[in-house]
């Protein structure tokens, strides 16, 4: 397996997904936008997992678990953010588990935090 090719695949997917998240939230599709923001974080974490293990990352969506598999050292605030942001992958896949009642302002704040997280993780790749 070409590790760098796989890392680039996950990194570019993350970039595309955070752009899609921004577009969706700006159009008022808050749940969908935050689902794509989760996907962007998930993919950049999978780039880290690939780089660390030299293998294809597992087909999981839990951001905290992916960070652990990547061997990332995160402060408690980042771990808490990832744990809380896991809600949006469930919300996007299983809307009957709806726990995230959002208004536009809250969605924009969460999107900004997600974007900062993607940028932080990308810089450390």
Describe the structure.
The protein is an all-alpha fold. It has a single domain, classed as Nucleotidyltransferases  domain 2 (Four Helix Bundle (Hemerythrin (Met), subunit A), Up-down Bundle), CATH 1.20.120.330. It is built from six helices and no strands. The chain has helices at 3-26, 30-53, 63-69, 76-85, 87-93, 104-123. Helix 1 (3-26) packs antiparallel against helix 2, helix 1 runs antiparallel to helix 6 and helix 2 packs across helix 5 (87-93). The longest helix is centred in the first third of the chain and has 24 residues, at 3-26.
Short descriptors:
mainly alpha; 125 residues; 6 helices; Four Helix Bundle (Hemerythrin (Met), subunit A); globular
Helix tally equals 6
Rounded to an integer, what's the Rg over CA atoms? Answer: 14 Å
Shape-level CATH architecture: Up-down Bundle
Strand content: under 5%
The shape is globular
Major sheet characteristics = none
Instruction: Spell out the helices and strands N to C.
Output: HHHHHH
> What is the tally of beta strands?
0
Mean pLDDT: 93
Structural domain tally: 1
Oligomer: single chain
Task: Please give the alpha-carbon distance between the first and last residues.
Answer: 18 Å
Helix content: over 70%
Give the structural class.
mainly alpha
How is this fold's topology laid out?
Elements (H helix, E strand, L loop, with lengths): L2 H24 L3 H24 L9 H7 L6 H10 L1 H7 L10 H20 L2
Summed up:
The chain has 125 residues and is an all-alpha fold. It has six helices and no strands.
């Amino acid at each position: 397996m070409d590790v760098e090719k796989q890392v680039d695949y996950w990194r570019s997917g993350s970039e595309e997904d955070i752009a899609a998240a921004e577009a969706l939230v700006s159009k008022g599709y808050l749940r969908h936008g935050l689902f794509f923001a989760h996907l962007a974080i998930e993919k950049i974490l999978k780039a880290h997992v690939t780089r660390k293990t030299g293998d294809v990352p597992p087909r999981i969506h839990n951001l905290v678990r992916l960070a652990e598999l990547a061997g990332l050292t995160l402060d408690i605030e980042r771990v808490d953010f990832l744990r809380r942001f896991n809600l949006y992958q469930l919300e996007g896949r299983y809307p009957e588990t709806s726990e995230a009642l959002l208004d536009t302002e809250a969605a924009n704040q969460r999107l900004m935090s997600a974007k900062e997280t993607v940028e932080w993780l990308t810089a450390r790749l």
